[in-house]
Amino acid sequence: MNSNQIDGLREALKHSPDNVPLRKMLAEALFGLTQYEEAEKEYREALRFAPADNSLKLGLAETFLRAGKTSAAQVVAEEILDAEANNAAAIMILSKLAFEKDDVKAAKDLYDKAVKLDSTVENVNYTNDLNQKLKDSGMAMSYIIDEQLNDLLLSSDIEKPKISFADVGGMESIKEEIALKVIHPIKNPEIYKAFGKKTGGGVLLYGPPGCGKTMLARATAGEINAHFISVGINEVLDMWIGSSERNLHDLFDQARMNTPCVLFFDEVDALGASRTDMRKAAGRFLINQFLDEMDGVKYSNDGILILGATNCPWYLDAAFRRPGRFDRIVFVEPPDKLAREEILKLTLKDKPIENIDYSGLAKLMEDYSGADIKAVIDISIEAKLPESIKLGRVIPVTNADIKNAINRHKATTREWFATAKNYALYSNESGLYDDILRYLKIKK
Ligand SMILES: Nc1ncnc2c1ncn2[C@@H]1O[C@H](COP(=O)(O)OP(=O)(O)O)[C@@H](O)[C@H]1O
Ligand SMILES: [Mg+2]
Description:
This protein is 58% helix and 8% strand. The protein is built from 22 helices and 8 strands.
């Protein structure tokens, strides 16, 4: 971010000083520019409005750490851990503080703990520094990480999902679409080549939360026994702010080295968000970088399936939708009655149950997302626990239990449609959101 953009942000904050996310952006940008004093000021100001916000405290603690204010960093990190004992980033700060005090053993232990809690805090440079220092201090033997292990750590966020399409209820046409667009080209490259069909590009899934976008992406990898790399909104923003060790290019490279691989961008709107000018500025830089990688002109993306998911497609930069990019935009709608039945069956599989009327229950759950259905089942199982414990044996969940739970957990997708409807009606360029209108049974 340059100083103009920072000024723009400050200007925006003048009009809405209590906009905490905006102020956080400013603080993070200042941090990225190593203007720690200024960053500290903004973090403190944001915390005035949101005193319990641990992510702000974390930003403040990191700012203190970089600025050499070690005791202040210590105090804030401990405060975070008081509220959230397993906050890996805060533990990481304590590790670095210990490192600076030459307490290598403590630094190493804290670091290991943090990485175990959250593999994304893994940092190769820091690992090397720690090992070097341990070696210097003569107790390295048990700690030196050999190359193999190091590789493992580097790829610790690559997984091989065990779920496949069969574990995802409903969505038959979407599964087919994904198979056509991304799975077949990977499995049968020579056929596609023979017909001169271009491969590449990605599929963007959008729709209300909890309807299985993330799950489906993971299942896509499982379906073809591919690796799966998932990148979230925060990580991507970190890349932009520059506080992340990784960048988009490394990420794509990682996928290229692990083909076949599903590279999944979750909540991809963060990249192209146009909610505020500020986000736009953040987006521009990343978008170009992203499109560069995705176009596969400079680098080959053979064997990489690119999937994205978002709840808010309207924030996505139009540049993403050109051919060769996310050129299939797929609406993941709430499950219909049959799909709900299937999700019920999948969720209740291997659970102690008795006389379940799947069809009847599915009928009662109109507009329920897959996550809602799962929540209903969780509630009905929990309700059965006390009795089971008291009697010392498993009391099965009944149809009535689930009906009760349905009454206690309402559908969460309606709110999303209230927003989506406006976009579909008033900013539906080239019929992008026709699927939403169709779902809502609104005629154009
Ligand atoms: N179609 C589905 N079949 C089975 N489970 C589902 C389905 N949709 C959602 N779920 C359940 O809800 C959870 C949340 O879904 P998720 O994929 O995270 O939704 P989204 O990414 O669309 O917000 C999943 O982990 C799964 O347990
Ligand atoms: Mg998701």
